[in-house]
Design goal:
The chain has helices spanning about 10-15, 15-35, 40-50, 55-85, 90-110, 110-140, 145-175, 175-195, 200-205, 220, 255-260, 265, 270-300, 305-310, 315-335, 335-350, 360-380, 385-400, 400-405, 410-434. It is mainly alpha-helical.
Length: about 425
């Protein structure tokens, strides 16, 4: 049945830990390289390309819009293609090559046009890693462990999101462009090795020598494996209703041609999925608001420069690192709804408290940091419910209508939509600033 000559290190390369680590490094690389360039981009525009100082902010916003627009527009075709291919590794690698090309263009480019192309390639790469990476996670761990996995990865990648702008600014100041991009190329090298070595579980199952019971098709196992967590009745509590009966997931055969061609569109008629995307949109909107206001507030209230203002993101991001896995595990155990409700209920007063800090010294800075950290706690709680809930919905439809969706299901298309929704606030904020 399977190949008589399996690849070397098959068990390790197809293990859950290696696949999850590979996706985590991919997401980390995407955010790290994005953040690494942020503090040095104004200097690239002004010193290397000779953009007038008064136009630097306009060009910076335009480049941000190019990134967000490319990611939003490329997410749907990436999702459709990934669901039609028999394996996800190839497009996952191609996405990394796009990021490598973008980084090279940033390093070598001497015109605004080249930087725009670099930002577009970076946006395409982001669409690939967030769409295919999340689909690969679901393929690997299944819906019952997706919350813990997403929470843990979000905690890990928050380190890159936090440290990249600080490192970029400090290393540029001490050692110049070359040292900054050397960090990026080193990380790209590690990412490439891991993506190249990865063997998806469905591919590993084709080889006879794969150990019996070797973590096969976790998505199917998770739906019926007692060892996967006991399957308590409340583990998949939805954001709206329960919808556990299979009849609710059945799709009638009389569907329009465009629905049969893109079955994810049928899923979008489910109110639970709409609410899940709304949760993702609100989280992205809040994060975008903090990205825009923390630097200006730091300068207005405390007279901070860009480096010190960047450090004020620490109390916002640290809760992801500490609480992300905890919140994800609670989502797996009690369902997405309680975590989303508690997270947003906590976030409302935390946002209101942002009116408290005043201009001042150490005491006011401490107050501001505590309030920002409280907001980080709320945001950490709502980090995984959206993705997990959306995955539950699509899993329900897929398991009840496998002939309608095909062999792979609509998961990459689902995460493409999630990526688009999450990037819309970024697109709007960049256009408002330009």
């Amino acid at each position: 049945m399977g190949s008589s000559k399996p690849p070397k290190l098959l068990e390790f390369r197809s293990s859950t830990k290696f696949i999850v680590s590979t996706v985590g490094i991919g997401l980390f690389t995407d955010l790290f390289l994005y953040g690494l360039i942020v503090p040095i981009l104004p200097f690239i525009l002004e010193d290397r390309i000779n953009v007038p100082p008064g136009q630097v902010q306009t060009y910076t916003s335009a480049l941000l819009a190019a990134y967000a627009g490319a990611s939003v527009l490329s997410s749907p075709p990436v999702g459709i293609l990934a669901d039609k291919l028999s394996a996800r590794q190839l497009p996952f690698l191609i996405g990394l090559l796009a990021l490598l090309a973008a980084t090279l263009l940033f390093f070598l480019g001497h015109t605004v046009a080249i930087l725009i192309v670099a930002r577009i390639l970076q946006g395409v790469s982001a669409a690939v890693v967030w769409t295919i990476g999340l689909a690969l996670l679901l393929d690997t761990v299944g819906p019952d462990k997706l919350g813990l996995t997403i929470g843990s990865i979000f905690g890990f990648i928050s380190i890159g999101e936090l440290t990249a702008p600080v490192l970029g600014g400090v290393v540029y100041d001490k050692a110049g462009y070359g040292a900054v991009f050397s960090m990026g190329f080193a990380l790209l090298g590690l990412d490439f090795i891991m993506r190249f070595l990865i063997i998806e579980k469905k591919v590993a199952r084709k080889y006879k020598t794969a150990p019996e019971g070797h973590e096969s098709n976790i998505r199917n196992e998770a739906n019926g494996d007692d060892e996967a967590g006991g399957e308590e009745p409340n583990e998949e509590d939805p954001l709206i209703g329960n919808g556990k009966e299979e009849s609710k997931w059945k799709i009638t055969k009389e569907q329009p041609k465009w629905i049969r061609k893109f079955p994810i569109l049928y899923c979008l008629g489910n109110s639970r999925l709409i609410v899940a995307q709304l949760v993702a949109f609100m989280q992205a909107t809040l994060l975008s608001a903090f990205d825009a206001t923390i630097p200006t507030q730091a300068n207005t209230l405390f007279g901070f420069d860009s480096l010190k203002a960047g450090l004020l993101f620490t109390p916002l991001v640290l809760p992801y690192l500490v609480l992300g896995p905890v919140a994800g595990k609670l989502v797996d155990k009690y369902g997405p709804k309680p975590a989303a409700v508690i997270g947003f209920a906590f976030e409302v007063p935390a946002l209101i408290l942002l009116r408290v800090p005043r201009a001042g010294g150490t005491a006011q800075i401490a107050v501001y940091c505590v309030i920002v950290a409280l907001n980080g706690v709320g945001l950490a709680a709502i980090g995984s419910p959206s993705i997990v809930e959306a995955s539950y919905v699509c899993d329900g439809y897929f398991n009840a209508n496998k002939d309608f969706f095909g062999g792979e299901g609509p998961y990459a298309q689902l995460y493409a939509i999630n990526s688009m929704v999450s990037l819309l606030p970024l697109s709007n904020s960049s256009l408002d600033r330009s």
